[in-house]
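Running log. JK asked me to keep both predictions on one page so they can be read side by side. First protein, sequence followed by its tokens:
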Amino acid sequence: MKVGSNMRRKTGYRIIARTGVVWLIASALFGSPPVQAQSVVPKYEVDPFWPKLPGNWVVGPLGGACIDARDHVFVLHRQEGLTEAMLKGRDWSDGARTLIKAPPVIEFDPQGNVINSWGDAKVLGDYLHDCLVDQDTNVWIAGARSGFVQKYSHDGKLLLQIGKAGVFDSSDGTAKGKPLNSSAAQFFGPSAVDVDPQNGDVYVADGHGGGNTRIAVLDKNGKFLRQWRLHHTEAERDIEPLPHCMRLSNDGSVYVCDRLANRLQVFDKMGNFKRNIDIPWKKYTRDNEDLRKYCLTLWRTFPPCTLVQKIGEGTSAVSVEFSRDANQRFIYVVNQNQREVDILDRATGKVLSTIGHGTGLFFQGQLFDAIRAAVDSKGNVYVAEDEGRRLQRFKVVGP
């Protein structure tokens, strides 16, 4: 599927969103206020004019998204999700232009312009899942169907790889082997990566479905230091541990998505368990049944209607991020099951507000199969969708 519309044809760019919302135009002219003490929960509106892409790019499923100190947004594009049949299509309204796959790593400026793109899909690994820009502007990337994580310069030069390519931390070294969770710098399904700004230690959530189930810590050169597992009680022994996301907070805590338990778990840097934060989860409802009918009626081919099973039957803790104020008052969690981003008070774990929920699936401001929410210095939120195949910007419009 091609992402874009015919707006701003003279520039050669296209806006990802297909349906502009006229009443948002006026507010788009004003910048968002900088993050202050974050004493008031911000309100959000979708920005229909962000981002802008070259007209011949085809965008497939997206993975991680991360933001640097200049509020430049990096998004990971899963090129393997595009078939040759998709590339052979033509946009007849624009001169039958030949289409190409969007690059694996795309960098946007705050206005939504593409200012750089890079990456070799064969080197990056499959199923790009998370990225992190460290304090030295290096970009860390984890591919969930690989056995390694990588560190790149801001412009895409490979600086460090932790773990061997083509090798998994399993009984036979392949993706078909039994996960080992061994005390080694080799992974099996790394789903998230973060870096401790105090000493450069690298934290990896090694736990995409079917692989390892641990948080591994390595030094800045990739030497293995320690690891721990999610904290499940005896009563929770039948819940598969799946650390799907992870972020370090400014006060030295490690927040991990315990995905199949629909919650965040908080640890100190040594792996000592501190608390759970439950993320809202609802069982199958009539509203979700209406969405299923909507999908089957109007979208028979794309997005795949089989994926609507994630609605009401999926998981609620998919990614975690913090507001950029010093105290990081707010936590932003992608709640895939509810088709929303939940905004929580970090101290209490209480849900204060949500972004993106609604009765539809594929229109602007609605979320389908969201995989990552990133937050810039002004509090704007950027949501990458896997099978939704788009990156949406929700801008702050007031307290």
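And the second, directly underneath as requested:
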Amino acid sequence: MSLSPLQIQDLLDENRAHECDGVGEDHVCVRIASIAELPSRFGQFQIVAFYNNQDNKDHVAIVHGDITGKEDVPVRVHSECLTGDALGSLRCDCRDQLETALRMIGQMDMGVLLYLRQEGRGIGLTNKIRAYGLQDRGYDTVEANLALGFRDDEREYSIAAHMLMSLKVKSIRLITNNPKKIADLRKNGIVVNGRIPHIMQANPYNQFYLETKARKSGHLIDFERTQRLPEQDDAPIVDGMNGQQQAVIRKAYDAYTKARKPETNPDTRGKLDAKGGKTQNEP
């Protein structure tokens, strides 16, 4: 059952003159601007448009069922990706994530997808294309952002948190592989009671991108479908081992770790030559 006409009118009336101290460090204030029906190939939804005092961008919530006042609402927070969402780029898994989330939520009793206008992990479309150019020259997705003067991920979720508050969602189960997203929403006042994994099948064009997100950005993606805990990144040195034993263990573990990771050159990583390409090895 979707939001009723009475519920929609109540939400619009409550938000028409809404003002608050805001959420997060930037005191983001959000209010619902409009609500409409959105039948789609993924299910029956309602779309909610929001105004905010922060970035003048049109963020929306795609809602299935009655989520107001509900606990443990399945929520996907999706950041805009023109090249993936609209153009079908194979360099990322954004379109697969978007469509899979909508299809999943459309089959549930209730759920919501927040579509945030945070293109390119928050660096914007033009800079994302610049980052793609660096990736074509050998950078990974994190190195490219850093080389352009950005952080690994420039996104933040105070607007998303206030959107959920405006919809009167009491608590959520977040559809994500990104623990930082969970932490950010919690920091901004959202009760996150669980995580629903959201892992897509890699293709030859985005395999390295996804591996980089897992290895460098902490995304919970296991390509070997085996449990890998953070402490497994350390060589298994235990008390009582002598120096020779420790050296043997470290050598074997270093070889194992190197075999699991794509080759990178630490001497040239993140450096640009005068033409914008990677610097060459020095003799």
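Observation for JK regarding the second prediction: The two ends are 69 Å apart (CA to CA).
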